[in-house]
Amino acid sequence: MKEKLKLGVIGAGGIFRHAHAPAWLSHPEIEIVAISDPVVEAAAAFAKEHGIPQVFKDYHDLLAQEEIDVVDICTPNSLHSEIAIAALKAGKHVFCEKPDAVNAEEAKKMARTAGETGKRLMVMRNNRFNPASQFMKKYVDAGHMGDIYTGRCGWIRRRGIPGRGGWFTTKELSGGGPLIDLGVHFIDVAMWLMGNPRPVAVVGATYNKFASADELETGTFDVEDLASGFIRFENGATLQIEFSWASNVEEEMNFYELRGTKSGVHFKNGELKIFSEIEGTLVDIIPRLPEHKISDHTSNINHFVNVLQGREEPILTPEHGVHMIEILTAIYESARLGREVLL
Hints:
Blueprint: E1 5-10, H1 14-26, E2 30-36, H2 40-50, E3 54-56, H3 59-63, E4 70-73, H4 80-89, E5 93-96, H5 104-117, E6 121-123, H6 131-141, E7 148-156, H7 171-174, H8 178-181, H9 183-193, E8 199-207, E9 226-233, E10 238-244, E11 253-260, E12 263-268, E13 271-278, E14 281-285, H10 296-308, H11 318-337, E15 341-342
Parallel strand pairs: 1-2, 1-4, 2-3, 4-5, 5-6, 7-10
Antiparallel strand pairs: 7-11, 8-9, 8-15, 9-10, 11-12, 12-13, 13-14
Helix pairs in contact: 1-10, 4-5, 5-11, 9-11
């Protein structure tokens, strides 16, 4: 256990400044000693504001600094695996914004490199850390759900396309649209509560209907704006999914619904309900969840620090990341081929 872990940040954009930085800056065991970004002015501005001594344009120069213990990756998706592998090989622990990688092979390389180097690798899964998810994990582990055999999850926006024309909507940089952007969050929570079963097959469809409808004038929009699919797991359980940035629907929502032999659960837009039977009577249970004291992102990063310092075992492993990216890659392939894809 070290009194202070020295952190290097790669990527000084919005996701770092708004989601990651508050956690790192407030943690008593973290000292940010370097930051890099191709737009070096952005990195320099953040460094000046927070007294960070080293600023780099090229992340390789940051990784060459021997004092750095941990690297935080907040770049466009296509660079996640490349930088993570380089950082692990340079002897750094790695925390990375989601998704793990843009395809399954890259995710496997990341996991393999973490194992070979003995360094910790964790990718942001902040939705595991909200009060509803934390409560449900305890509820499931106590056996109150029984056998969870099927479910569905999604994140459906009426209008919510991020960075239209930029890297978010450019497949070469992002890896895809709402499936890889939003799907990671709720597929992960659902699978985590189901006990992380191994996926064996998927079928899916993707649609791009809003790129031309909103008359994109500049940039690229070659990703889906809606994806739907169906996942089968090795233990026989199944999961339906739907994720969209834009749909003509009545209500925007993010949700998961799981059905077990003893009870079921429905989480929707922050509200949690449990459905069960007590003494022959059907009951609906609404837990009184604690209020957020800190953000889910901060809770996730605090957990990572606790893992590095030997106080906790990781609730997210590189293997979980591999399974996630295998699913997403296979859904895109299923949509392309028009048939089920085996994993």
